[in-house]
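Batch queue: ligand-bound targets. Current item pairs a single chain with copper (II) ion. No template structures supplied; prediction is de novo from sequence plus SMILES. Inputs echoed for audit trail.
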Amino acid sequence: MAALQGAQDGGTFFPPQATEAAAEHDSVFFLIFWISAFFFALINVAAVYFAIRYRRRAKGEPVEKSPSHNTKIELVWTIIPTLIVCYLFWIGMTGYVDRRTAPAGAYTVYVTGQKWSWSFAYPEGFVSNELHAPVGRAVKLVIGSTDVLHSVYIPAFRVKMDAVPGRYTEAWFESNRPGTYNLFCAEYCGQQHSMMGASVVIHADRAGFDEWVKEQTDLGDLTPVELGALLYTRKGCNTCHTLDGARLVGPSFKDLYGSPREFEGGGTAIADEAYLREAIMEPTARVTKDYSPTMPDFKNGPIKIEASELVGFIEFIKSLSADGAAEQAQAPGEAPEQEQE
Ligand SMILES: [Cu+2]
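Prediction returned. Tokens below.
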């Protein structure tokens, strides 16, 4: 029975409890579960017993006299269940209101769902594809979508809220347990729905979190290739593009530079700097063959790419192909040229 009750490390029914709300949620669930189990057993046993006791008799067999009613029993089976459902309503309602109302002064993170990835914009002015927070701090999620219905679902926090295009929804949590948890999309949103996940990282203390925020905001003295490598995860390219040649939502960046590209609806090109620039800033101008035009708009969308960052992406992608790496070795630190192959 303890295994059923969802201990901190997760029971049979539930993932670990990483918020106080999760523990409350599970206790309400199990209370209702055991009350239902008790009445299920009671009613079935009574039904079988009465079916036998008051079965149809053979002709001539004496019939047991049955009373028309019994006020005492009727009062008991009316009042007790009424009190129970009132109590369940009370704990359900107060729990719901608590879950819906973020405490004043909560740390606000803007969550955006899009086919098929999540992005998290922080009040310090940066965007990440991971949700980070320190232990013991209330975090309010303001949730939007750029295309279709999605749903933010963090099982370990017992948090679930739809992301609806054209409006903002809210959810909140306060974790009491450091660790890394899963965030899923819980609204079927198309082909790559099952791959639409993100990590939620709860830092053990405020200092660890502040450190992470500093890393995100401080670009330091990076070469263009290093900048591109950093932005590749920070702007969420890694949710759709790999570096090892594997196909995800989009084509891999490995050996992309210098390779021949084919497009939907015809046409070909060699992936030089000018092409990469167009592919990143205007992804729908020419759509790579066998892929759908689902790359986010980095010009006007919620996550933007600055001119200085574009150089980083191009140099980073170049460094991932033999041709590009050789060129970079010849002319270290030079800005990308526009020449054709
Ligand atoms: Cu989705």
